[in-house]
Records
---
Amino acid sequence: MPNQKILYITTEMYPYQEDTNMAAVVNKMALKMHQEGNDVRVFMPRFGQISERKFQLHEVIRLSGMNIIINDLDQPLIIKVASLPGERLQVYFIDNEEYFKRKQYYFDDEGNPFEDNDERAIFFARGVIETIKKLNWVPDVIHLNGWMASFVPIYLKTYYESDTYFKDAKIVLSLYNEKDADLDKKIDEKLQFDNISGLKALDNPTIKSFVIESMNYVNAVVKGDEFLDEDLDKAFNETATEKSEYLDIDSINQLY
């Protein structure tokens, strides 16, 4: 079914990340939908490991310059864009010196999770939402990949609930076996600042608990990894949201 506007929000995508299933799956899904005549855009964080020179990233001045308030602090939002190498498929990068310049993703060199991982996820989610609105491009399908992306539907259905911009968009969440870690215990105060409260995930805020929470805010959940770890698999089996077992890339458009 061509001529759909499909938005991929992801934390990983080949070739910007290599050797992970998520990065490969997102690349293949986006390319397949693009080649079938759909209007596809991808949003991801501009982690410090992604070479701006190698991948020819450049700042989009008209989209940059917004400030997003996280925990009462103004954080500047910088938007960079590149075309997927060899393809006319645009990838947008959410950037901020404070949150994304470091070379590691979520854990420091000793394996400890970054204390601001929660703020980075909030900034990423709100940055994507605000930039899409600024683009004046309304997606038909939003496909979420990676734990930071799971904050997007939570924000859309709470903080942005009265905003009709995304009201007709269908949201798909792919589940992957990602390394779990605690999030800052004060995340409840940071979300409260955006009038978000009452989330079950706040009882024990972790990467995984927010992914599980986000299943309640989407239209469909699909296995991104064929076999999920015990907690995710249990949540997948128990969710009342429409769900699909692992799909090969050729079947993904059936889901849409």
---
Amino acid sequence: MTKLTLYVGNKNYSSWSLRPWLALEACGVPFEDVVIPFDFPAGNPKFRDISPTGRVPVLHHGDIRVWESLAIIEYVAELFPQAGLWPEDPAERAVARSYSMEMLSGFRALRGACPMNMRREKRAINLPNDVMGDVERIETIWREAVARSGGPFLFGRFTAADAMFAPVVNRFEVYDLTRNPGSLAYMDAVKTHPAFAKWQEAALKETWIVPEDEA
């Protein structure tokens, strides 16, 4: 099979890059990753050479280009059905996709106020009510999913749905957004997964600083 190449941004900051990278890595899909760092505020012109949107992540598979995190995950799930990126049960798979779409299109207040930052020292900041509304909804998803599956992940084993929420796990930790024991247990399961640890290790070695993401 033609090699898969996933182009990503700074591993310290790029939440949308983390999502497909983590899904592929955790589920054993073979791929190469290439980091192209952000160059704020103008953006990195190299992105235009690899992505029709001028953004990352983008997956190259021969002549095929797939952009947007969830589209990349869906494409790879079709290529590697044996990898189990989604739950096997159709009903659970539908819920997993619903959660993932909710993350894709929602929680804008949280994402805007609390950028993903793997290097950030844990410290709370003052947050408006709409951010805490996002936090409450996310914790409801985690609580209901883990209760239904038995955990430790949303659908028992690690799936693409967990990958979609992984940047939020970082946000909850470094901005000290929860003290809920159930949420902390789920966060710990994600943080100690070997794939997440591998990304974080690479992120902590980066030296690029993006002031816009240093909340």
---
Amino acid sequence: MSRHVSSRSFESTRRRLTEKQADTVERLASAAVEVLREQEFGGLTVRAVAARAGVGPATAYTYFSSKEHLVAEVFWRRLDTAEVPDGTGLDRTERVLAVLRGIALLLADEPEVSAAVTNALLGADPDVEHLRGRIGVEIHNRLGQALGPGHDPELLETLELLYAGALLRAGMGYGSYPELAQRLETSAKLILERP
């Protein structure tokens, strides 16, 4: 079940990228995190991120249609490169909990970034919708692997809804992301260990 993505992705939401373009996108994503740490989501602009990254605003808008798109890309990159827990020797519940914990804690040490991600992922921008779909598929696949072959599709959907609800709840300020991870584990156990 372990997977680690070590090669850089040269694909953005909008198109495949050359290595130079991929480097620009990476600089913009890193700059977005820096700006978020200082100003939070309300103060984030694509122009401010472009300035921090040392690129022109027109260049930034070539890759990102909105600040929501940019922040959704930050989360997608974190998720895509996060190592999937090795489930060897773990039972089904432990495997699922490890996956949920890993996803929930991706941004736990960056509250400004995590709050921005929740806001961004709720956006209606078509590029955000595309990334939201990719994120959903990745989470679906990780949970499906953790549940194992022949799992109940309704159980998988319940776990996906649990995660989405927890993300929304944390984004609304009803607890921190570390608290979210703990509550998510408790709730998932109730679902997975029901008679």
